[in-house]
Amino acid sequence: MKETLLLEIIQEKVKTCEKCDLCITRKNAVPGKGNQNADIVFIGEAPGKNEDLHGEPFIGTAGKKLDDALENVGLTRNSVYITNIVKCRPPKNRIPNDVEKIMCSNYLEGELAIINPKIICLLGSTSYYSILGGKEISKNHGKFVSKDNRMYFVTFHPAAAIYNQKLGKVFKNDIRKLMKELQKLKTKSAD
Q1: Which of 15, 39, 81, 128 is 20 to 30 A removed from 87 (C-alpha atoms)?
Q2: Residue 5 — very low, low, confident or very high, per pLDDT cuts 50/70/90?
Q3: If DSSP states are collapsed to H, E and C, what string results for the chain?
């Protein structure tokens, strides 16, 4: 399929990217991964240690939290697409800076244009701020936002649930809300 080829081209470009200084400290660039026909794209902040080692998004502890939340609503990794704002791990897991985000923005935009999901789920403050300019995720999680003919859903990063057990329940509830909205959208488009 044309979409598969286009995503593979982006993934190869990510793997060899040298647009910013993150290429110096990374072990592996981490392109997005998942279903090119996904109804939902999840966008996190940046790869962590495990992701950097293996070149795959959300495979560490935060990834396990995401997998649990997906499983809880009947989704699998293979049914969604998972990516990040930046594709290389910032040193010491710091928040990506504006230059790094800008350098990766074409990759992310390319992924979204090819997949054209029904909903884009922003995981955490960095993706919320980077894409929608949002500030306080604690006041805005669980909300849907339309911008540029796309529907976004805001929730906490699954890593937040590692450090705050209460957020684990909130995160799972947010993912349930996301799934209910997706089902409504699918029903509308089927009519």
Answers
A1: 39
A2: confident
A3: CHHHHHHHHHHHHHHCCCCCCHHHHCCCCCCCEECCCCCEEEEECCCCHHHHHHCCCCCCHHHHHHHHHHHHCCCCHHHCEEEECCCCCCHHHCCCCHHHHHHHHHHHHHHHHHHCCCEEEEECHHHHHHHHCCCCHHHHCCEEEEECCEEEEEECCCCHHHHCHHHHHHHHHHHHHHHHHHHHHHHHHHC
